[in-house]
Specification:
Quinone Oxidoreductase, Chain A, domain 1; Rossmann fold; seven-stranded mixed sheet; about 25% strand
Length: about 325
C-alpha cells in the first residue's frame, strides 16, 4: 500500500447534525484505508439535496463525527488495500459515501470501499462523471429495479429537463422504450437530444389530454422526477397494471385518487438511492460507464466552486436556488 501524500487534509465537515452553519471547512487527519478500501485523492465532488438532509438530520442514518459531508467523488487512487482490485494511479468514482456509517467525499482524500468504487473510463471528463454519478444511478434504479422496464414499453418522465430527467430519458431510450417527457419549453431541446419521442410543456393545462393522445393505451411506467407530484395525472395516464414511481417530493401533500389506482391494479413504488444495494449500484455503474463512453449522458453543471464554499452550496440547495449541478473542487 502506498503511503498517503500528507498527514492532514482540508475537509468540509460537521461535529453534530444541524443547520448549514454547522459546516466547518478545516483540517482533519488523512483517513487510513482498510484492507478492502482505497484512498482516493478527490478531483471533483458533487453536491446533492440528500447531502443536506443527512447533514441536518432530516434523513436519519449513522454518521461518524467529525462527519465529512457528501456522497459523490471522482479522483485518483493513492493507496489501495491488499483486498482490492485497484492500483495506485487509477482514476475512479463513487456515489454512495457519506451515510450508513461511511465518511463523506468533501475532502482532499476519501476512503472508498472497493465494492463501491468504479473505474473511470479513459477519456471521460471528470466533471461530467461527477455530475451524472448520482442522477444516472437514480435513473437506473427507477427503470431496472423498481420500474420493470422492458423494450417496447411506454414511459413518462416528468421534469425531463433536469439531470435526473435527462438521464432517465437516455436510459429508457437505450433500453428500447418509447419516452414521453414534460419540461419547460427552454428544456425541450435538451429532452430531444436525450432521446424523448414526444415532449410536452409541463405547464400545459391539458397535459393529461395530450398524454392520452400520444399514448392512447396509457404509459406502462409514470415517473415525475421533479418532486412535484400530480397523482391525478399519474392515475389518468398509466395503464391497468402499470407503475407509478416516487423518488423525490416537496412538502406538498397531494390528494390521493385511491379508487382510480386500486381498481386498475396500479402500483406505487417509492425508492431512494440510499437504500440501493451494493450490487444494484455496481450494476448501475457499469451501465453509466458504458453510456459515458458512448456519449449518451449529459449534465447541466451550474457552477464549480472551491471547498470553502460548501456551506454556501448547502444553503443554495436548501433554498431550491440551483438549476443544474453544483460541483466542488477539493
Amino acid at each position: 500500500m502506498a503511503a498517503p501524500l500528507a498527514e492532514t487534509m482540508r475537509a468540509a465537515y460537521v461535529e453534530r447534525l444541524g443547520p448549514v452553519e454547522e459546516i466547518v471547512v478545516g483540517e482533519l487527519g488523512v483517513p487510513v484505508p482498510g484492507p478492502t478500501d482505497v484512498l482516493v485523492a478527490a478531483e471533483l465532488v458533487a453536491a446533492n439535496p440528500v447531502d443536506t438532509l443527512v447533514r441536518s438530520g432530516r434523513y436519519p442514518t449513522s454518521v461518524p463525527f467529525p462527519f465529512v459531508v457528501g456522497r459523490d467523488v471522482v479522483g485518483t487512487v493513492v493507496a489501495a488495500g491488499p483486498g482490492t482490485p485497484f492500483d495506485v494511479g487509477e482514476r475512479v468514482w463513487s456515489n454512495s459515501l457519506g451515510h450508513d456509517g461511511r465518511q463523506g467525499s468533501f475532502s482532499e482524500y476519501a476512503v472508498v470501499p472497493a465494492e463501491r468504487c468504479y473505474r473511470l473510463p479513459g477519456g471521460v471528463d471528470a466533471g461530467l462523471a461527477a455530475a451524472v454519478a448520482h442522477p444516472a444511478a437514480t435513473a437506473y434504479l427507477a427503470w431496472f429495479v423498481h420500474g420493470d422496464l422492458r423494450p417496447g414499453r411506454w414511459v413518462y418522465v416528468g421534469g425531463g429537463g433536469g439531470n435526473v430527467g435527462s438521464a432517465a430519458i437516455a436510459m429508457a431510450r437505450r433500453a428500447g422504450a418509447r419516452v414521453l417527457a414534460s419540461a419547460q419549453p427552454r428544456d425541450h431541446d435538451r429532452c430531444r437530444k436525450a432521446g424523448a419521442n414526444v415532449i410536452f410543456d409541463y405547464r400545459d393545462p391539458d397535459l393529461a389530454g395530450h398524454l392520452r393522445s400520444a399514448a392512447p393505451g396509457g404509459v406502462d411506467v409514470f415517473w415525475e422526477t421533479s418532486g412535484h407530484h400530480d397523482v391525478d395525472l399519474a392515475a389518468d395516464s398509466v395503464v391497468t397494471g402499470g407503475r407509478v414511481l416516487l423518488s423525490a417530493a416537496t412538502d406538498e401533500r397531494p390528494a390521493f385518487p385511491v379508487r382510480d389506482l386500486y381498481t386498475r391494479n396500479v402500483s406505487l413504488h417509492g425508492f431512494v438511492i440510499s437504500r440501493a444495494t451494493v450490487s444494484q449500484l455496481a450494476d448501475a455503474a457499469r451501465l453509466i460507464n458504458d453510456m459515458l463512453v458512448a456519449g449518451q449522458l449529459s449534465a447541466r453543471i451550474a457552477e464549480v466552486l472551491p471547498l470553502q464554499a460548501t456551506g454556501q452550496v448547502h444553503a443554495r440547495l436548501e433554498a431550491g436556488a440551483v438549476t443544474g449541478r453544483l460541483l466542488v473542487r477539493p
